[in-house]
Amino acid sequence: SLIDLWGCCAVTEVNAKALLVASHIKPWRDCSNSERLDPYNGFLLLPHVDHLFDKGFISFEDSGEILISTALSSAAREKMHIDEELALERLHVKHRPFLGFHRENVFLG
Question: What is the per-residue pLDDT across 45-77, written as a single tens digit (0 to 9) for each?
Answer without folding.
Answer: 999 999 999 999 999 999 999 999 999 999 999
